[in-house]
Design brief:
5-stranded parallel beta sheet; alpha/beta; 3-stranded antiparallel beta sheet; binds zinc ion; binds adenosine-5'-diphosphate; 221 residues
Length: 221
């Protein structure tokens, strides 16, 4: 199963991706996680990525496509692939199509987790993550057992540099303008299913809807 997971920032892509990978066993590739790791390493490329990410702007397509093409080549397995945060522009989707075509592979589904703007702002301002293992929490909705400490690593949770209200508005604008057209790009294509899941529900309900949708998709593949 080769799936693209889409949705506005804060919709719950990362949270749900981890659960789907546990359930279905495919590889999980998050462009945001890959970029943040590069950024944390302090390379010249990482500094370049940071310029865009900290401003809430999309990283230019050429840079994204180069990094993600390599990651996909080394990661794609018979168990499948869950792409989280990529492609985010129509140009990136075209590049992905070309890469899969060349490898004789294809995409099976596009899954969109939806959430409205107020919910998104609330989720992103309350998002905290573990600097060691990357596990994501929320100060209100998905709290750690001990205040501000990772359940697994016992280290302090941190807030992402771009998770501020001002930057969120910019990221949302980028989503509406540049990423939403990707849904239309894939929609109606034979052999690619598009699935919308209401992300404004408790996490377990979102997971249940996603699992049901993907099981259905598997039977139709
Ligand atoms: P979120 O989880 O809030 O949706 P991500 O972690 O996926 O955010 O991405 C964080 C930032 O990394 C984005 O705001 C953007 O600057 C950059 N980024 C991630 N994926 C892409 C992509 N496919 N194209 C361009 N920029 C990207
Ligand atoms: P994305 O990867 O789409 O940016 P995340 O999975 O990081 O989104 O979730 C954003 C924030 O919202 C995190 O703090 C996460 O703990 C929280 N969250 C995720 N799903 C839900 C949900 N269904 N209800 C409430 N909070 C959620
Ligand atoms: Zn941790």
């Amino acid at each position: 199963m080769r799936i693209i997971l889409m949705g506005p920032p804060g919709a719950g892509k990362g949270t749900q991706a981890k659960r789907l990978v546990d359930k279905f066993g495919m590889a999980h590739l998050s462009s945001g996680d890959i970029f943040r790791a590069e950024k944390a390493g302090g390379s010249a490329l990482g500094q370049k990525l940071a310029e865009y990410m900290n401003a809430g702007q999309l990283v230019p397509d050429e840079i994204v496509v180069e990094i993600m093409a390599k990651a996909i080549t080394s990661c794609d397995s018979p168990a499948g692939l869950l792409l989280d945060g990529f492609p985010r522009t129509v140009a990136q989707a075209e590049a992905l199509d070309a890469q899969l075509d060349q490898a004789g592979k294809s995409l099976d589904g596009v899954v969109v987790i939806t959430a409205d703007e107020d919910e998104i702002v609330e989720r992103i301002t309350g998002r905290r993550s573990c600097s060691d293992c990357g596990k994501v929490y929320h100060v209100k909705y998905l709290r750690p057992q001990n205040d501000n400490l990772c359940d697994k690593c016992n280290v302090q949770l941190v807030q992402r540099a771009d998770d501020t209200e001002g930057v969120i508005r910019q990221r949302l604008a980028a989503y509406n303008l540049q990423t939403e057209p990707v849904i239309a790009y894939y929609r109606g294509r034979p052999n690619v299913q598009t699935l919308f899941v209401n992300g404004t529900q408790p996490p377990d309900n979102v997971t249940a809807d996603l699992v049901q949708g993907l099981e259905q998709l598997k039977t139709e593949m």
